[in-house]
Amino acid sequence: MPALLHKLNNPKKGVSTVMSRHILRISVVLAVLSLSLGGCAKLDSGRPVCASCYPKTIRVACVGDSITYGSGIKFRSRDSYPAQLGRMLGEKWQVRNFGVGGATMLKNGDKPYWNQQAFGDALAYNPHVVVIKLGTNDTKPQNWKFKDEFASDYADMVRRFADLPAEPRIWICNPVPAYPERWGISDARIKDEVIPLVGKVGRKLDVPVVDLYEPLSGKPELFPDQIHPNAEGAYHMAREIYAALTGQQITAEYTEPEPANVLIIGDSISIGYFKPVKEMLAGRAIVEHNAGNAAHTANGLAKLDEWLGDTKWDVIHFNHGLHDLKYIDENGKNTTAEKGKQQIPIDQYEKNLDELVGRLKKTGAKLIFANTTPVPDGTGIRVKGDAKIYNVAAERVMKKHGIPVNDLYSFSIVRLDKIQRPANVHFFPEGSRLLGEQVTKCILKALDDR
Questions:
Q1: Which of 90, 116, 197, 290 is the most exposed place for a label (fewest CB within 10 A)?
Q2: What three-state secondary structure class fits 34?
């Protein structure tokens, strides 16, 4: 550039006056463009995200502590603030929760976010948008003795995210209130010390601050344990962050989401875990079981329409197997393997399952197949090992249709002597409860993935 300016100032040395003016104009334009591009992050600070400027999904990382994670919220995968924010933003956005219980911003805190797997995961996610809400746990006495390092540590974290390839937009948040103190967490320190320091970081780095303190002040009823907001409190948090990211306000008050409809189809094993599942999903889903025992696959094909009824099911968790593989005589009565044949031979079992899945897929529900639990020695009408063989056939069908398998066989086999009755396919009440927990986990994942 100095050589070019020398020529421009000395037109007699090979550059005409007219050409000099053109080159000068071009140089000025390039300089302005360079300044504009170099400062675009600052110019965008605080402005809403231009969703249409992203050709693909906008990745949002919610970085924080147990309040971000959703501790204390019964169905946190649905009702934590990141989950509610994701629903508010819509399909164009992908919001992930990187909250860690007890985490501090302070590197010298008792549980630095810097040392948690979630921090590495959030960086690897390479988000387009980062929302940081840390500071609550920093107010504990053992942590706040390092308060002089808080602002510099916060600025370091902002810079770590800012240096990512995606060049993310970053928002930092004032912590929510505490009511007034518990576990060493102090509302006075949050309000009088942490919040001013967050503001200082925002001003220094030209990073916008989302105020989550004032919108939740005077609402102790939203903090059942004095520290963690409930689902409604998380809604208020999500609403404030949504406004910051989009520039749009959500004025609607919080309403409890409508419960999902879940159908469990199965035999007496599922009847055993049905009640625990229904209790564990209370408030999240209305859980029904097919009338009576679903028995074998042929019975399932015959009665499926009756079981489905007119309900719009969100999730259907189903199983057949124990009644297919059991042995019956020529009159259909239970008998031993030596005297009878399997009620539904394995080839027919596989065909029946294939037809059942085809019909179930037409409901539009998320489907989960529960494979058959183990058959022990001594049942008289079933043979040990047959469940595993039938499960292989079932898994072929589920793989063909892309249906996830709830592997209750593997879950049960490692603790069978503690949860299953002797010489019996049925489970003790505690065994049914443990099976119910596994079923609940699978159903919740299906509901979250809808």
A1: 90
A2: helix
Going along the chain from its start, the domains and CATH numbers come out as 43-246 (3.40.50.1110), 260-448 (3.40.50.1110)
Alpha-carbon distance 203 to 218, whole Å?
A: 27
Per-residue buried b or exposed e for 188-209, using 16+ beta carbons within 10 Å of the residue's own CB: ebbbebbbebbeebbeebebbb
pTM: 0.74
Q: What number of other Cβ atoms are within 10 A of residue 309's Cβ?
A: 10
Sign of the torsion formed by the C-alpha atoms of 337, 343, 349 and 351: positive
Rg (CA), the chain: 30
pLDDT per residue as tens digits for the range 367-407: 999 999 999 999 999 999 999 999 999 999 999 999 999 99
DSSP 8: H
Contacts of 34 by beta carbon, 8 Å cutoff, 6+ apart: none
pLDDT digits (tens, 9 = 90+) for 223-276: 999 999 999 999 999 999 999 999 999 999 999 889 999 999 999 999 999 999
Integer Cα distance of 131 and 343 in angstroms: 58
Report pLDDT for 44.
Answer: 64
Calculate the dihedral angle through the C-alpha atoms of 362, 363, 368, 373, rounding to the nearest 10 degrees.
-90
If DSSP codes are grouped into helix, strand and coil, which group holds residue 64?
strand
Query: Given the DSSP bridges, would you call strands 260-265 and 285-289 parallel, antiparallel or unpaired?
Result: parallel
Neighbours of 436 (CB within 10 A): 21
285-289 and 315-318 beta bridge pairing: unpaired
90 in helix, strand or coil? coil
Give the whole-angstrom CA distance, residue 151 versus residue 134: 12
Of 72, 154, 65, 174, residue with least CA distance to 110: 65
User: What number of helices (H) and strands (E) belong to the chain?
Assistant: 20, 14
Residues of the chain with pLDDT under 70: 1-44
179 contacts 213 by C-beta, under 8 angstroms: no
- 3-class DSSP state of 208: coil
How far, in Å, CA of 268 to CA of 275, rounded?
12
pLDDT at 20: 45
* CA angle in degrees (0–180, nearest 5) for 93-98-100: 155
How far is the C-alpha of 134 from the C-alpha of 382, rounded, in Å? Answer: 57
